[in-house]
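Self-study notes.
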Amino acid sequence: MTDTEVYSIRNDFPILGTEVNGRPLVYLDSGATSQNPVSVMEAEQEFYEQRNAAVHRGAHTLAVDATDAYEDARATVAGFIGARADEIVWTSNATEGINLVAYAMSNASLGRGGEAARRFALGPGDSIVVTEMEHHANLIPWQELAARTGAELRFVPIDDDGVLRLETAREVIDPRTRIVAFSHASNVLGTINPVSELVRLARAVGALTLLDACQSVPHLPVDVKALDVDFLVFSGHKMLGPTGIGALYGRAELLNSMPPFLTGGSMITTVTMERAEYLQAPNRFEAGTQRISQAVALGAAARYLGETGMQRVEDWELRLGERLVAGLGEIEGIRVLGPAAGLPRIGLAAFDVDGVHAHDVGQFLDARGIAVRVGHHCAQPLHRRLGLTATTRASTYLYNTTDEVDAFLDAVSGIRTFFGATR
């Protein structure tokens, strides 16, 4: 991809042509929420205008059309990550997907699901392993699971550069470990973690693996079979899709053995006043009225990214990320978190400005039309490990240009002077 092509791509995103505080919008917050191309917005609108009906319930034409659109979207999103359609469970977001797995394991620990679910049960003496760089969404559900079951929550630490200490991982992941949950790419550090090595360590002791792919599925080519993980989660709103929709990938044999998390209509086969029997996955995990229009729109987002080419997206963001990190590194008083320039990372950079609070940095940039994220980015333990309470994060996507990165760097270079923080 080139800047010329990216400028053409930007025509698909109406919001990028707006102004903020009298300046052209420079949107560098896609790590939080990406923008939507026209095709995604039209897909959801078209569903409501022409196919709106309950799915998997009605026999009339509109209901059949709605069900077809809903399941076509599932097949599209499954294909986007190399999965089978019956291995994709629709969720509200990645957070719900992680909670689904954690609560299913909790239910199994209570004896729900019978013999097939026994492999998911935990108790005292077992351990759950996460990493020190996790988003709260991939930490708190496991804290709660440990509290409910008596299992021990352990973590793999990072070094000062934000890289996992694999020598410690080989000690932390042991025969007591039942599941290893970790991020593919850090939403703060930009670090791309060694999935194959962590999966190998988990496999060696018979542990399950769950990959938080919120910052990888939108930005890198992802093939779940090649990664060899048991579960994987991602959110639609970070990959050009709408809010309110995400997905959990799980190996079919695992999903069909797990007890459900939410129960009610649409996920059952037979119900009496005393008991119920559940459908096979993915339906057993989609109780109630489904996220129909959002799923259809997410399917459109996956098609848009697929047509653009995920390898091209990765290459472009790698270029932007290198420009971000190198440029920030040249500005006095700036500390960039994560791998140094030249090392693998996704196209984002979180940084600390000496003498200026992150929220002041964000307001300074916003006044110049530049949208970034400030705070702890839902990763307080990581920030605490690095001796910080908050940072500023700039994150790129396929619609950002090198000119925008340069405008951001130019603005950052004036922050410490503006706040009188220079010495």
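Second protein, same conventions, sequence then structure:
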Amino acid sequence: MAGEIAITSEGGQYNGKMTPFVILSCMVAATGGIIFGYDIGISGGVTSMAPFLEKFFPEVYKKMKEDTKISNYCKFDSQLLTTFTSSLYIAGLIATFFASSVTRAFGRKPSILAGGAAFLAGAALGGAAVNVYMLILGRVLLGVGVGFANQSVPLYLSEMAPPRNRGAINNGFQFCVGIGVLSANLINYGTEKIKGGWGWRISLAMAAVPASILTLGAIFLPETPNSLIQHNKEHQKAKAMLQRIRGTNDIQAELEDLIEASNISKSINQPFKRILQRKYRPQLVMAIAIPFFQQVTGINVISFYAPILFLTIGLGESASLLSAVVTGIVGTSSTFISMLIVDKLGRRVLFMVGGIQMFVSQVIIGSIMAVQLGDHGGISKGYAYLILILICIYVAGFGWSWGPLGWLVPSEIFSLEVRSAAQSIAVAVNFLFTFIVAQTFLTMLCHFKSGTFFFFGGWVVVMTAFVYFFLPETKNMPIEQMEKVWKEHWFWKRIVGEVSGDGKMEAP
């Protein structure tokens, strides 16, 4: 076929090209990233709006407006306020394990559809909230939606994409997260100016827009060939879909790999127990370590609480929301750059560059706040804007490294037989530590003060070293042949050795 790209790996040759059908399907599925990003961005904005705080969190409002004796770092320290932000992530953590069963038993598409519907209900409840209980119940429903979407969408994108374009396609999820955060920041900046103090309702209810797109779009989404093979013994439907998404009739090599992986998958009844076996040890470690490290970069400190952070260093309410818009633009732009280069430079290079960039900027931010911002009073406008620039540098580093790659790498390294379970573990770990960071940050800021940035900077050093020593390069490797990267890695080959057909270990 003219214009066709041959995708070659050690295990054989996959034929195919990037087709409009794949691009359109992945664009619709990646809307799941927009709902996640919108929620991250919107919560930090509305919790900095005085009318919202006055209605639902009057004690915080009083400390912010009236009590000048309280430290700059402690004005927003409220467990009820952080429960509003973090309740979503506990709900998401629980929901992702239900999503694993749905994804494995029924396919990726039903799981995406369930996520969109739950998020839509949560958006409606949040926008109509008259008390804090309705508000938090709405957040729980949003969490169920995000739990299902985050479990299924990265898998869907990785399975639909040709191997040589998998990084760019999957990074589209984080790009959509960035679009969601940016959209939320822009809406918060606009609704904060609405007279009457009800603008926060629009901010919360507008989450229904991306949720509606995802829910309606999911109805028309095609199922992935991997999932069709799992649920269709004849394989004809899967073969036809594979031919359609690859734009060629010559898909036999890839189809045979998918069928072989599916046969192994069908012999496994307890994938969560299976993943504990030694042959899956590298994948299990990555399923836990990568989402953990993604959260202790400190990014959600910026995403959730950017407006509050900017209020802390002395910017006004409107200027704080505008500053959050600026960081949103930077994050989205850098993720787009990552989409363009991840399949050329590889995952490890971007992890290294981003890690160094984040560490340096965090150390300088912490140093400036330690020297210039005391417990009371403000900070000069010059230093405030310098901190804003440094936060943008930090966000850019995250945007082309741990942001998109934290979702890409776990979704592409798991064998089909444990893929759904492993993705659930990765999402659950992500939500667990998102919850912990969200629930503790305002208290941490109160007690650690500027040392908060040194705390997260230290973790960035640890995680950059971890990637350097333990994460193999996975670019251009077909997803069904990914086990080779562990057998060839200097450390993991000692663990996995050579695996026989019955799954038992043989000597390396």
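Instructor comment on the second fold: The domain at 7-487 is CATH 1.20.1250.20 (Growth Hormone; Chain: A;).
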